[in-house]
Amino acid sequence: MTDFLIEAYPWIKALHVISVIAWMAGMLYLPRLFVYHAEAEIGSVQSETFKVMERRLLRVITTPAMTAAWIFGITLATIPGIVDFSSGWFYVKLALVLAMSGAHGSLVRWQKEFENDANKRPARFYRMVNEIPTLLMIGIVVLVIVKPF
Known about the structure:
Low-confidence stretches: none
Largest sheet: none
Structural class: mainly alpha
Order of helices and strands: HHHHH
Strand content: under 5%
Mean pLDDT: 97
Number of domains: 1
């Protein structure tokens, strides 16, 4: 099995990167939809359209991409010689990925609130929330590429 993983490494890495890009696309776009949805009148055609867009983005792209990113990431970490587990960068990166997954969970919860016409937050809140995935992504990429410690 180890030989197979070593041979498949470039493919697993490519699939991981593709999954992360798709996950981030959803993580950056969904809060933007929430900004506009929070400004729409409940029950309006616009509000109902946002519900469909948010649900589809989350269920068809963002959540499956997160799942794939985790699967391929864990698979990469199990390939001998790929991760130096004595380096601190990996554990900080893992913590940031867990934070990104927590942010994903918040987006799921807020999407359900919008779906049920129960949103209580203003558009400004979602504008600020939109920056969280960006900051986490910057930290993750710097840690993976630079490996500062």
